[in-house]
Design brief:
The complex is a heterodimer of chains A (407) and B (217).
Chain A: H1 6-14, H2 41-49, H3 70-75, E1 80-83, E2 90-93, E3 97-100, E4 106-111, E5 114-117, H4 131-135, H5 152-162, E6 166-170, H6 179-184, H7 186-195, H8 197-222, E7 228-232, H9 245-251, H10 253-266, E8 270-274, H11 283-289, E9 293-296, H12 306-313, E10 318-323, H13 328-331, H14 334-348, E11 354-358, H15 368-381, H16 393-400
Parallel strand pairs in A: 1-6, 6-7, 7-8, 8-9, 9-10, 10-11
Antiparallel strand pairs in A: 2-3, 3-4, 4-5
Helix pairs in contact in A: 2-15, 7-8, 8-10, 14-15, 14-16
Chain B: H1 3-18, H2 21-33, H3 38-58, H4 64-85, E1 96-101, H5 109-121, E2 124-127, H6 134-144, E3 148-152, H7 160-171, E4 179-183, H8 189-195, E5 199-200, H9 204-215
Parallel strand pairs in B: 1-2, 1-3, 3-4, 4-5
Helix pairs in contact in B: 1-2, 1-3, 1-4, 2-4, 3-4, 4-5, 5-9, 6-7
Classes of the chains: A alpha/beta (407), B alpha/beta (217).
């Protein structure tokens, strides 16, 4: 029997206390969900778990299930619920493109059954040269549109009062950190910061205006009821950060600081940054700007080994993730998955400050038995006090057999 | 080659490393005026700059903005030199490489970086784009008589297509005629072995070493 509420468990963990067990995160958000696509995906998982009569999966353009049945979440002992703005406004265009109106008209392209960000040539502002081009762009979202917030205060209040889950609020509908590359292309971002920094900042100001309006409206509605606010802004590649530390400080960090300052004005919620890949060199910055928690912990990215992160930064920030979606989930046996998760708990869990979660959404190529083995292991071994005596063999080998290795 | 010329080549190399297109163009012009051979300007100036950046990249002292800038500077230099290269042959092409991102995946930056570095080293790169089906990969390989087929993939969900490409090549009886290298965050050496690719390269600069080894160049 659980001794404390889900919410309490999560909040104590973020405060670096040991609750009764390691909290578990999975659910209806693009980076914590499971894809609804073959050969396995959400449907295969439900079938494997013997869960029947679940509602038809509702998926976002990139294929993540957004209505995972609570029976699945409960089976995995998930401590969270998500709340997101209403965002249904999508325009279908020729050439397999869709325009997402709540994302400033970002274009997604259909590939197979899914939509994915359309790449540089389809970025609507890829050729923008002047700030006039930016100002004259017709698809800036009006975040004062009440449609986005309709009924959400009520929903958040109900979740807060009638459930004891920790509630995560989601900034996907503005995607503040990544909007520059959505609109102009990643190549433009990488080059603009060097070649035309003033233009870069001018575009960021424009993007920020929308984000600010969104946050003010959204947090006015739900700010009192949420426990965590999530922002995502990928900063890592597999072997280093995308930007140099100097560029990060000039072009990324100031906008994170603004974001955090504004969120803190409207809510007491803890702030989570989601950033893929190797973030080792910017961890001190992530901590300094004031994030309470960090998600992905991709274990095989450069210098992201759990013991290294725990030792160097573990008492300053809460860690979320580590359940590797690149190699462990798709390419191991269930008993190996279990060993790996045991290792994660061994390294990350002592002293609190660790929430178990997949490093990213789980792809359709992952067999359901691996997913179940991982979540079951987190529940089994995550009980405090942690009683694992040493790192399991498979876990150690996963890090030592080759640099980015796999046993 | 006199000392002044060597100094200019060094400056050209530095300008490539800094990604300064204007400086690169100016040094190329200046070197031509001083009578330098276009092939020397490329090999001893521009390629040297790119290699030096590569070493810095290996030490994690450079980032992808640097690489893209240097790639653009290299192209700017080539614009100045190109009209003259038809007459003065650049050293023989090292090999022809077809590059693409696998089906279901639209990521392009990593692939572009690989193309930039391979080209600066003297490989002929044919970039066939993103979301490329096994059929298109095989057809392009066949049509261009490529020495190497390079596949890129960021998403673990689409990595499986790499195997399908290899199966398609086998079906057409051309697997043995081409070397296959793969890269991207979703894959590694072990994965390359599992699907029967010839090699894996973890980044753009190491892709050059791998390609050279595969073709024994």
């Amino acid at each position: 029997m659980d001794q404390i509420t889900h919410r309490e468990r999560v909040l104590r963990t973020i405060e670096h206390q040991e609750p009764d067990r390691v909290p578990i995160l999975f659910g209806n958000h693009s980076v914590y969900s499971i894809n609804d696509m073959p050969p396995y995906g959400y449907r295969a998982l439900c079938e494997y778990l013997g869960i029947k009569n679940y509602p038809t999966p509702v998926v976002n353009p990139v294929g993540n299930t957004l209505n995972i049945d609570r029976r699945v979440l409960d089976r995995f002992h998930v401590d969270f619920e998500f709340i997101s703005p209403v965002a249904p406004d999508v325009e279908v265009l020729p050439n397999n493109l869709i325009r997402v109106l709540h994302l400033n008209g970002t274009l997604f392209k259909q590939v197979g059954n899914l939509y994915t960000l359309a790449g540089d040539t389809f970025c609507p502002l890829h050729d923008a040269k002047t700030i006039e081009d930016i100002e004259n762009y017709p698809y800036w979202t009006d975040y004062n549109n009440p449609l986005y917030y309709e009924g959400k205060a009520k929903e958040a209040k109900k979740l807060h009062e009638e459930s004891d889950y920790a509630i995560i609020s989601d900034d996907t509908p503005v995607s503040f950190g990544e909007m520059y590359q959505y609109l102009l292309g990643f190549d433009r971002k990488l080059i603009d910061i060097r070649r035309r920094p003033e233009f870069f900042h001018a575009v960021m100001e424009k993007i920020w205006q929308g984000c600010q309006t969104f946050l003010e409206n959204w947090l006015t509605e739900v700010g009192d009821y949420i426990d965590l606010q999530l922002i995502y802004d990928d900063q890592g590649m597999q072997d280093r950060t995308i930007f140099s530390l100097e560029d990060f400080r000039k072009f990324i960090k100031p906008y994170w600081e603004r974001y955090i300052k504004l969120v803190r004005k409207y809510t007491k919620a803890k702030l989570v940054i989601h950033s893929c890949g190797s973030n080792y060199t910017i961890f001190p910055e992530i901590i300094e700007v004031g994030f309470d928690a960090y998600h992905t912990l991709q274990p095989f990215a450069w210098n992201m080994e759990p013991w290294r992160l725990k030792k160097e930064f573990g008492n300053k920030i809460c860690f979320i993730g580590g359940f590797d979606h690149q190699k462990i989930l798709p390419r191991s046996t269930p008993s190996e998955v279990k060993e790996f998760v045991k290792g994660l708990i061994y390294d990350y869990a002592p002293g609190g400050g660790y929430i178990f979660a997949p490093t990213h959404d789980i792809g359709g190529e992952v067999p359901p038995e691996n997913i179940v083995a991982g979540f079951d292991a987190a529940f089994e071994y995550g009980r405090y006090p942690i009683e694992i005596k040493n790192r399991p063999d498979f876990y150690e080998r996963a890090f030592t057999s080759s640099r980015r290795g796999f046993p | 080659m006199n000392i002044q010329m060597s100094k200019l080549l060094k400056k050209l190399a530095n300008s490539i490393e800094e990604g300064d297109e204007e400086k690169v163009k100016n040094y190329c012009r200046l070197l031509l005026e001083k009578g330098a051979e276009p092939t020397d300007i490329i090999e001893r100036g521009m390629v040297e700059g790119m290699r030096s950046l590569g070493q810095k990249f290996e030490r994690k002292g450079a980032f992808i903005s640097d690489l893209l800038m240097a790639g653009a500077a290299f192209e700017a230099g080539m614009e100045v030199l190109k009209p003259l290269i038809t007459r003065v042959k650049r050293k023989e092409r090292l090999g022809r490489i077809v590059l693409g991102t696998v089906q279901g995946d639209l990521h392009y930056i990593g692939k572009r970086l690989v193309a930039i570095v391979l080209e600066t080293e003297g490989f002929e790169v044919i970039d066939i784009g993103e979301d490329v089906s096994p059929d298109e990969f095989a057809t392009s390989t066949e049509r261009t008589k490529a020495d190497i087929l390079g596949m890129s993939c960021l998403l673990s969900t689409t990595a499986g297509y790499m195997k399908q490409v290899i199966e398609e090549l086998e079906k057409r009886g051309i697997r043995k005629k081409v070397k296959i290298m793969i890269g991207g965050a979703a894959v590694d050496e072990e994965f390359a072995r599992t699907i029967g690719a010839d090699a894996y390269a973890p980044d753009a600069f190491r892709a050059v070493d791998v390609a050279r080894k595969l073709l024994r160049r």
